[in-house]
């Protein structure tokens, strides 16, 4: 399940501020059944391996409605969003613990 929070604020009949936040988290674990090679090192059978993926996104936008009817409308929308992603693999072996963090700010 992914928690999502949204809000829309009307600043008049034609002006609106829209915002959304969502958070996605996935993780998994396993114990290897056979040995394999990873980054030039042999990982033995029975090694515990854990993985994770976390994603946070915040979006804020401005909407100007040009035409508004009962079931439809046409408008101009500008949006900023910030995304933070974190991924990683860890184990009971020190040599395969890796983390990646990324940030992205965009305008649409």
Describe this structure in words.
The chain has strands spanning 4-10, 15-31, 36-38, 41-43, 48-68, 73-91, 98-107. It is an all-beta fold. The strands form two sheets. Strands 1-2-5-6-7 form a five-stranded antiparallel sheet, with no helix packed on it. Strand 3 (36-38) and strand 4 (41-43) form a beta hairpin.
Rg over C-alpha atoms, rounded to the nearest angstrom: 22 Å
Cα(first) to Cα(last) distance is 27 Å
Uncertain ranges: none
What's the tally of helices? 0
Q: Mind describing the biggest β-sheet?
A: 5 strands, antiparallel
* Secondary-structure class: mainly beta
Total strands: the figure is 7
**Shape verdict:** rod-shaped
| Helicity range | under 10%
Strand order of the largest sheet: 1-2-5-6-7
Mean pLDDT: 88
Run of helices and strands: EEEEEEE
Q: Note the beta-strand portion.
A: over 45%
Sum up the structure in keywords.
single chain, 108 residues, mainly beta, 7 strands, 0% helix, rod-shaped
Task: Lay out the secondary structure.
Blueprint (H helix, E strand, L loop, with lengths): L3 E7 L4 E17 L4 E3 L2 E3 L4 E21 L4 E19 L6 E10 L1
Antiparallel strand pairs: 1-2, 2-5, 3-4, 5-6, 6-7
